Write a sequence for this structure.
């Protein structure tokens, strides 16, 4: 059996990619190199440009500048159908299947195998679906309706669909965000089998334990720019975080903030029965570029909706909560945003 080359040729490359939305420069220097048989992590803070890069791979956005190559050949996608035909599939965090169609019908939607008189060959569709699941090492009834499938199962249907059109590049955009521990393990097994079969998987995650457990290389992005690409085994979590944020983490969360202004919002022991309990925090004037310090007592459940504003226009919002730590979620502020609002939400996580 021939040995696998140490550095297989790139399956897909992006170089010098720029993409702006009006005055917002989402990608300034997007770069990526995906090799066959690798799981490649793409990490960066919120707003680093990861989703924009994914949308360029998926044919949703055309780059303003730069080149996307497949097998060394430059490609221009006119839309998602072109990217899919070229073998690039994107698996989103929460897939959107047709709930009233079966699993098999969802996979072959618009491409159903036909028999005589152009009638749909349901037996062939069912058989091919079972074969796809067998390749993934997954058990699922092709005839069951998509309605009621867990998010994890819906993702598996999407992955089977990607295989059905011979996708060689699978992009997974925070696929584990809504999965349980057992479901994450099952997804990892599927991803590893995709890698074994020669696919390239781009894995976007904020969870470093997953990145280090699953991925062979890591690309870091910051402020729309490529920062680095390295084998995971040559990196530590601290190095990745420093590259993502562009400074020492201790500078991000200083023990004493001498620049903070007066307290403009003070919340003490805010409680909504059955929803959250004992939420305490201050917001100080002049803290427009960083998350304010939080002090929720241990064990307290809380949730918050946060927004960044430019003038009177909300430009970005996100949720945080005790089940989803602020440090994990707070994005970099968009350029030009000067003010923020934070409200304690009324819904439990
Ligand atoms: N369609 C759009 N119109 C205007 N601005 C956009 C658009 N899409 C993205 N942006 C902006 O481009 C920048 C990069 O966003 P992008 O979503 O690519 O980052 P990201 O790294 O994927 O962040 P997240 O993890 O929060 O999704 C952000 O400032 C974002 O607000």
């Amino acid at each position: 059996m021939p040995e696998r080359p140490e550095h297989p040729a790139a399956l897909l490359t992006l170089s010098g990619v720029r993409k702006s939305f009006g005055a917002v420069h989402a990608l300034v220097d997007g770069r990526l190199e995906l090799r066959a048989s690798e799981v490649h992590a793409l990490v960066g803070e919120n707003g680093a440009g990861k989703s924009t890069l994914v949308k360029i791979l998926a044919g949703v956005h055309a780059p303003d500048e730069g080149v996307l190559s497949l097998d060394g050949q430059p490609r221009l996608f006119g839309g998602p159908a072109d990217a899919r035909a070229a073998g690039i599939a994107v698996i989103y965090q929460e897939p959107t299947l047709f709930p009233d169609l079966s699993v098999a019908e969802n996979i072959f939607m618009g491409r159903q195998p036909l028999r005589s008189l152009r009638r749909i060959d349901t037996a062939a569709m069912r058989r091919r679906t079972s074969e796809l699941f067998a390749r993934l090492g997954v058990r699922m009834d092709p005839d069951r309706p998509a309605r009621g499938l867990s998010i994890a199962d819906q993702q598996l249907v999407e992955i089977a669909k990607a295989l059905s059109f011979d996708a060689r590049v699978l992009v997974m955009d925070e696929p584990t965000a809504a999965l349980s521990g057992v479901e994450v393990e099952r997804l990892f097994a599927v991803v590893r089998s995709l890698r074994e079969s020669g696919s390239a998987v781009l894995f976007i995650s904020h969870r470093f334990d997953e990145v280090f457990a699953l991925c062979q290389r890591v690309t870091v992005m910051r402020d729309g720019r490529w920062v680095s690409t390295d084998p995971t085994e040559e990196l530590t979590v601290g190095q990745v975080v420093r590259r993502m944020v562009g400074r020492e983490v201790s500078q991000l969360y200083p023990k004493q903030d001498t620049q903070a202004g007066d307290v403009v919002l003070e919340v003490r022991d805010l409680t909504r029965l059955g929803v959250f309990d004992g939420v305490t925090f201050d917001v100080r004037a002049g803290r427009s570029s960083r998350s304010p310090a939080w002090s929720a007592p241990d064990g307290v459940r809380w949730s918050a909706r946060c927004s960044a504003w430019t003038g009177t226009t909300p430009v970005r919002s996100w949720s945080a909560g005790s089940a989803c730590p602020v440090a994990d979620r707070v994005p970099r502020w968009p350029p030009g945003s000067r003010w923020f609002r934070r409200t304690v939400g009324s819904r439990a996580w």
About this structure: The longest helix spans residues 181-196. The pocket of adenosine-5'-triphosphate is lined by residues 21, 24, 26, 44, 46-52, 316, 331, 334 (CB under 6 Å). Residues 160 and 202 are 16 Å apart (CA to CA).
